Amino acid sequence: MLENFKEKHTEVNSQIDAWYAEVRSANWGKPLDIKQRYSTASILPNDQVVFNLKGNKYRLLVQVNYKNKIVLIKKIGTHKEYLKWSK
């Protein structure tokens, strides 16, 4: 999903790559751990988190299984697309 998005939105490639590298080595045990590193991240119900990429231009929605240290990428899109996700 990330690779497909990067092909269409090359200006955010380095930020996606940096986020992915950090997540692979992250040891998040609770939402506060994410907020300490990503202060603009939005913590949602059901262990979901929205990360802002390239300022506020792109959004990345993930679900975190804190116990098993798994981050599931659910959606990535422009801010305009993000506004439609909850509808």
Q: Overview of this structure, please?
A:
This protein is of the alpha+beta class and 87 residues long. It has a single domain, classed as YaeB-like fold. It is built from 4 helices and 4 strands. Strands 1-2-3-4 form a 4-stranded antiparallel β-sheet. The longest helix has 13 residues, at 13-25.
Ends: how far apart? 21 Å
Shape: globular
Uncertain parts: none
Question: Largest beta sheet, briefly?
Answer: 4 strands, antiparallel
Instruction: Provide the residue-averaged pLDDT.
Output: 93
- What is the annotated CATH architecture? 2-Layer Sandwich
Reading the helices and strands in chain order gives HHHEEEEH
Structural class: alpha+beta
Give a count of the beta strands, DSSP E runs of length 2 or more.
4
- Helical residues, percent: 25-40%
Q: If strands are numbered along the chain, what order do they take across the biggest sheet?
A: 1-2-3-4
Strand fraction equals 25-35%
Please tell me how large the radius of gyration is. Answer: 12 Å
What's the CATH C level?
Alpha Beta
